[in-house]
Each structure stands twice: as C-alpha cells, then as structure tokens.
Amino acid sequence: MAMARPADIFLTAMAPAIWGSTYIVTTEALPSGYPITLAVLRALPTGLLLLAFTRCLPPRDWLGRVFLLGAFNFAIFWVLLFVAAYRLPGGVAATLGAVQALLVIGLSNLLLGTPVRVLAVLAASCGILGIAALVLGPEARLDPIGIVAGLGGAASMAAGTVLSRKWQPPVPALSFTAWQLSAGGLILLPVALVLEPPLPALSTANLAGLVWLGLVGAAVTYWLWFRGVARIEPGAVSMLGMMSPVTAVILGWLWLGQSLTSLQICGAVVVLASVWVGQLANRPRADVPKGPEFSGASRATG
C-alpha cells in the first residue's frame, strides 16, 4: 500500500477537528439531561437521510457487520462518551479518550497483522501527555465509573476504527457511513425510549445545534473519517483523532473567552508534533505485503 497522500491526511484530520466543536455545541445549544436521546437524533435521521440520498442498502450478509460497527463507532462509543463527560472533568475525559491511539496500534497488530512500531507507540504516548497538559486542570477528579466509561469509549472507537478498515465493503464511503449511522441510531432508539423522558419542546438554538451535530458533525465528518480509514494506516488515522481536544480548547478560547496558559500552548504544540510524527511512524513499509483484509480499500472511495 502506497503512503497516504497529504490531501487524504488533511481531509481525514478535518473530521476530529470538527468533532472538537461537539462540546461547545452540546453545552451552549442543546438541552441537558438527554444524552442518549440526543445521540439518537444525531445518528438516526442523518443515517436515514444518507440512505435515501445514496439509495444503497447493505446486503443481507453484511447486516451483522454493519450493526456491530454501528455499535462500536456510534451506539456504545457515544453513550460511554456522555457518561464520562457527565462524571469527569472534560480534561480527564479527553485524556482517557486519547488512549484510543495506543489501543488501535494493539488491535491493528492483532486483527490486521500490522507491526507494532516503537516510534508509533512513542508518538501516541507523547500525544496523550500533550493532551493532558492541554486540557487537565487542578480541579481534575477521578471518578471510577467515569474512568471506566472513558476507557471503554476509547476501546469502542478503537475497535470500530480497526474493524472498519478490516471490513471494507465494495461501496463508497458515504454509503458505508449511512449504514453505520442508521444501525447505531436503531440500536440507541429503544435504549433512549426506556431510560430517558421525552424531550421538551426544542428551541431554534436546539434545532440548529442538532442540525450541526447531525449533518456536519456526523454525516460529513464520518464520511471523511471512514474515507480516511480506507486509505490510511489505522495507527495514523487514530493519531489524527487527537486534533479534537486541540480544536475544543481553541474554540473555548475564541468563543467562550477562556484563557490559555503557557502549559496549554506547549501541550497543543506537543499534540500537533505527535500527530505529525505518528503519520511518519505509521507509514506502510514497502516490504510488507498487502493482506486480504485491505482488498476493498481501493473501492471505498466515497
């Protein structure tokens, strides 16, 4: 497999960069106390809209894989993400989420046969430390349930990323995104109906926030993400996910007037440097044969 083009890396990095807006949109534009219901409204209508646009349904023999991927990438990940966000300071939750990069390296070795490279592990570890410096504050507390949820969410997204690479269907990335969003929304729907009360009447700001998180924060970004997963080594893709907390901090500074300390600026520099080194460290080697699990990658072009 040839080295990923800079354009592919840039477009894929746009996804986590946009995901960095999720926190500010959720806190400033959405009603609180309905995390699962809001996740359903983010995933299911968007997935069904994309299905109508692409006119491409998953074949019967793909349904099991699609629902498993929808669970890992959306249903389980989003629920655990909300639990961690509710029980932990944002900095602690973001730092735990960054562990995903190390988990992807291990899972890629286990499921795809990708070699574990020392430089890649060092880049991921430095990225985690950079995020800790960027977002952790003196008020950080360690709630056991929140920690388990944060690590579980990272593991879920890591598994979804690696399996999305392993199971590449012969359809464009936009159709693959539609399948998974719809499956994730369908999984979450009964959970929301059982565990959460009905939503109150939504304001214009609420609707605008849902439109942003659905059309841009889900449809566009996950299309870019799955497109990148098909073209870039999983370890390199996971390192790009560290762009999310960087964007979140920058938006907090620009939009909410939050201050930036010297330590946070240094942390951001470390994160960006780690992401760059991670792309170099996870380059496919010329002497590594292309395995059968990558055979569909060239077809999932989005």
TrEMBL record:
Top-level division of the source organism's lineage: Bacteria
Keyword Mitochondrion: no
EamA domain boundaries: 9-135, 145-276
Transmembrane stretches, start-end: 7-26, 32-54, 66-86, 92-112, 119-138, 144-164, 176-195, 207-225, 237-256, 262-281
GO terms for cellular component: membrane
Membrane topology summary: Multi-pass membrane protein
Presence of keyword Ubl conjugation: no
Localization, UniProt: Membrane
Pfam families documented for this protein: EamA
Keywords, sorted A to Z: Membrane, Transmembrane, Transmembrane helix
Family membership noted in the UniProt record: Belongs to the EamA transporter family.
PANTHER family: EAMA DOMAIN-CONTAINING PROTEIN, INNER MEMBRANE TRANSPORTER
Protein name: EamA family transporter
Origin species: Thermohalobaculum xanthum
UniProt lineage: Bacteria, Pseudomonadati, Pseudomonadota, Alphaproteobacteria, Rhodobacterales
